[in-house]
Amino acid sequence: MQSFELNKTDIQRIKQALEEDENVLKALLKEYHASEIAILFESLSEESRERIINILPAEIASEVISEMDAEIHPEKLLEKLHPERRSEIVEELDYDDATDIISQLPEERQNEILQDLDAEDASHIRNLLTYEEDTAGGLMNTQVIKVNSSLTKKEALEEIIRQSEEMEEFYTINVVDNYNHLIGIVSLKDIIKSKNTVHIRELVNDDFVFVKAHTDQEEVAKLLSQYNLSSIPVVDDTMHLLGRITFDDVIDVLEEENTEDILKISGVSEDEELSGNWKEAVKSRLPWLVINLGTAFLASSVIRHFEPTISRVVVLSGYMTMIAGMGGNAATQALAVTVRRISLNDLTDNQAYRTVLKEFTVGLINGAANGLIIFLFALIYDSNLMLGVVIFLAMTGNLVIAGITGASIPLFLKRVGIDPAIASSIIITTFTDVFGFLLLLGLASRLLL
Amino acid sequence: MQSFELNKTDIQRIKQALEEDENVLKALLKEYHASEIAILFESLSEESRERIINILPAEIASEVISEMDAEIHPEKLLEKLHPERRSEIVEELDYDDATDIISQLPEERQNEILQDLDAEDASHIRNLLTYEEDTAGGLMNTQVIKVNSSLTKKEALEEIIRQSEEMEEFYTINVVDNYNHLIGIVSLKDIIKSKNTVHIRELVNDDFVFVKAHTDQEEVAKLLSQYNLSSIPVVDDTMHLLGRITFDDVIDVLEEENTEDILKISGVSEDEELSGNWKEAVKSRLPWLVINLGTAFLASSVIRHFEPTISRVVVLSGYMTMIAGMGGNAATQALAVTVRRISLNDLTDNQAYRTVLKEFTVGLINGAANGLIIFLFALIYDSNLMLGVVIFLAMTGNLVIAGITGASIPLFLKRVGIDPAIASSIIITTFTDVFGFLLLLGLASRLLL
Q1: CB contact under 8 A, B193 and A161
Q2: Once rounded to an integer, what is the mean pLDDT over residues B222-245?
Q3: Using alpha carbons only, what angle is made at residue B58 by residues B55 and B63, rounded to the nearest 5 degrees?
Q4: Predicted pLDDT of residue B5
Q5: Residue A278: how many other CB atoms lie within 10 Å
Q6: Considering only CB atoms, which chain B residues are within 8 Å of A275?
Q7: Is residue B142 helix, strand or coil?
């Protein structure tokens, strides 16, 4: 299989086949991997998706459903299927994927689906549904490979082969005692390499990374990527083995957290779906804009206060917007660098202090450089030296404030336990607007009138 | 090992131990995992890092160096070590990690390091140094597990155990023909489960994902995450097996690309190091601010053009900044959602068209809602109905423009092959500034004078 990118032709071929007879469609679908069909679904209507899911073998259909973007709502597709077909597909799903999808439905619909399943599957999924979505418990799969530490090499290998029948892939083998307490891990390689007479307890690595079920998913992602692990076991508070989280789930978490960061920093609610409709977008963004309007009233009240100054030096109104705008952009730069840095690593007090100091210096230099340009402009264009001095000072001052607030507000939020990305450009530009106007107009009314 | 977060105490303990005798330090370091020491390094001086690297066993030292953040320059640390010690450490590194670090040094220093290594290691690294850093070739490790398809189960297992001696972990076994052509993959599990008489060629899965050496790293990351693979084999143009890329490298790529996105969208050069000093920050941000200043002159020339209007209705200068500022924020919202969406998925023409239409609608509604608030304010506070109408229309119009430009500019850039994140808030707010002022002041000079 070559690296794959869906293009228009693929979508047209599928759409055409949907119009024709079932066998043509079936034959065409065989050319695609389940995850490719899941991507194709984004360009197809709900009806077409349902038809395709009903045609595919249950095993492939369940893979497609588990790979569908949450934004095109696999749970709604599942809901619409005939109960028998639905059970067939859900039973093919990994427990964690089944749980993720079913959890999006109202409770009564969840129960309807679960009561049609076989008892063991239903109980696994019911159990997983009790964990918060963004914790290790909500992320984990309860299907794990585990062997008792008392087994011999031969017994362990038989056990692993037996358990792995139902799993697509596994990366580490968990070693437990008679009470299902996790006591360590062992790799398949080490078992194979060992002598035939060996017991698992002699091979076990008991210096390993694990997480508790209530650990936040961001913490899980950090651990897995810090220790380069392909999977992490999940335990309860008394070390009973509950499940495992694999790197592919962590990659999804990272993408999700990164989307949230980029949205929040831009003043969009973190739960806006990227491909959502306009109603969701208005709901997610309007509150932020109204907050921004409130802060804009604050900034404009500064301007109103200085109206006499402006009416005497009208040319100030052109410079006002430059200084406020530049401050906003410089603050956004400092904010982005700081938020991203905090989200990748925790900073010590000393590092935090040096970050603010750095942004102060950057603001001073960038402010003076841009201040000089605008000073020369005022000198040449408005032939007014004092005006030049005023705007130079206001530009420099405002970019210093931009640097300090852009760095210190997210650092402060992190320190008090609030997500630093909430310090969006909307909040931060209030400071640069208000201070920019205050500086420019205050200096102007002192020095120019 | 419990989930780990470095705190002040750890750093203080290490700093204290650095002052005391070597044995105290050695004993203390034993408590930490290599990746933890790498994080500790961020709070230590270069001299302290060098001392610790020299004390640690070569195996651990090399792990620490490979886990060090690129921003604290492992290559400089390596450069400073005694040549013998350095070779010892480099030889313990995975080839891809060694290449990443050495590639940061000037060519003559690279050669000095390479000529001290044993011939095989040096040739592997020299080979890897020829690939571009951000391609599959630049990312891959040349240490792979591979077996010839003609081997029997027993021969293959022996071969795998032999090859895996030098590797920490492996996830898939590559199957090659007599000419090192990659013909498929097989899992260790499937080999173990098979009968003793079986040949590898009977087990091989030939429907697998692979990448060419020159494939862009972003494409590699998309494939690995789309197909949930723990590793991807890398081949040359004639299918010779060159190496493999593992999920942990892909996680690093994703974090790197996400950092670049968030920086670019905020008007910061993508190569600014998050923990860099103020000189680097000024170099990275000043050009963008100067561009912004240029566009601000454009916006302020609109204001200058309408100076007579402003001097007759001075209260307009307060509303000007509100309408421009709100437009900038609404544009940033639309931009963030669109850029993030494009970076996760490619959009069809139809999806792109609907995205712009959606942002138009969102702009219209959010504009009218905020316009209404500001209209009421003008009515009550300035007792001027016509002024209220003017600012209502300007607010609505500017937020529509914000939505359209925020969505269409990144979509256009993507279509012509430019990174859409370059459409930073700096570029986009030029539109909302200029149009905001034009709308407000143009309407005001028609309707209010």
Answers
A1: yes
A2: 92
A3: 105
A4: 56
A5: 19
A6: 341, 351
A7: coil
The span from the CA of A447 to the CA of A390, in Å, is 8
Question: Are B335 and A310 a contacting pair at CB < 8 A?
Answer: no
Q: How sure is the predictor about A1, in pLDDT bands with cuts at 50, 70 and 90?
A: very low
A217, with CB counted inside 10 A (0-12, 13-18, 19+), is buried
Q: Specify whether the CB–CB gap between B180 and B240 falls below 8 A.
A: yes
Where do we find the tokens 């961001």? A218
Count Cβ atoms within 10 A of the Cβ of residue B434 and give its class: 0-12 exposed, 13-18 middle, 19 or more buried: buried
Q: How far apart are CA A343 and CA A421, in angstroms?
A: 9
Q: What is the pLDDT of residue A6?
A: 63
| Angstrom distance (rounded) from CA A441 to CA A307 | 9
- Arithmetic mean of pLDDT, B359-386: 94
CB contacts of B340 in chain A (<8 Å) are 259, 262-263, 274
Distant-in-sequence contacts of A229-232, Cβ < 8 A, 24+ apart? A230/A171, A230/A172, A230/B169, A230/B171, A230/B230, A230/B247, A231/A170, A231/A171, A231/A172, A232/A136
Nearest C-alpha of chain B: how many angstroms from A161? 6
Question: How many Cβ atoms are within 10 Å of B338's Cβ, its own excluded?
Answer: 27
Distance from the Cα of A130 to chain B's closest Cα (Å) equals 23
CATH fourth-level superfamily of A278-447: SLC41 divalent cation transporters, integral membrane domain (1.10.357.20)
Query: Which residues of A fall within a CB distance of 8 Å from B210?
Result: 1-3
CA A125, A127, A131, A136 dihedral sign is negative
In this prediction, residue B420 carries a pLDDT of 86
Question: Nearest residue on chain B to A338, judged by CA atoms?
Answer: B274
Q: How many residues does chain B have?
A: 449
Cβ contact A278–B321 (<8 Å): no
Q: Which residue from B97, B246, B223, B225 is spatially nearest to B169, judged by alpha carbons?
A: B246
Q: Is the distance from CB of B268 to CB of A349 less than 8 angstroms?
A: no
For A94-135, write each residue's pLDDT tens digit. Answer: 888 899 899 999 999 999 999 999 888 898 899 889 998 889
Fold of the domain spanning B146-247: CBS-domain (3.10.580)
Could you tell me the residue ranges of all domains in chain B? Answer: 8-130, 146-247, 278-447
Give the residue ranges of DSSP H helices in B149-246: 153-164, 188-193, 200-203, 217-226
Q: How high is the pLDDT of residue B6?
A: 63
Nearest CA in chain B to A311: B311
pLDDT band at B1 (very low <50, low <70, confident <90, very high): very low
CATH of A8-130, one of 1.25.60.10, 1.10.3720.10, 1.20.1250.20, 1.10.10.10: 1.25.60.10
3-state helix, strand, coil in chain A (%, to 5): 70, 5, 25
Task: Select the highest-mean-pLDDT range: A433-437, B12-16, B29-33.
Answer: A433-437
pLDDT by residue (tens digit) across B265-292?
888 888 888 888 889 899 999 999 999 9
Please say if the pLDDT value at position A337 is more than 90: yes
The topology (CATH level 3) of A146-254 is CBS-domain (3.10.580)
Residue A173 β-bridge partners? A186
Which of B2, B324, B348 lies closest to A321 in CB terms?
A: B324
Supply angle C-alpha B248, B281, A343, rounded to 5.
40
Place of tokens 């920086």: B263
Contact A337 B292 (CB under 8 A): no
Tokens of B329: 């924020």
Cα–Cα dist A195/A154, whole Å: 10
Is residue B230 within 8 A of residue A171, CB to CB? The reply is: yes
How close A400 comes to chain B (CA, Å)?
13
Facing residue for A3 by CB, picked from B192, B211, B350: B211
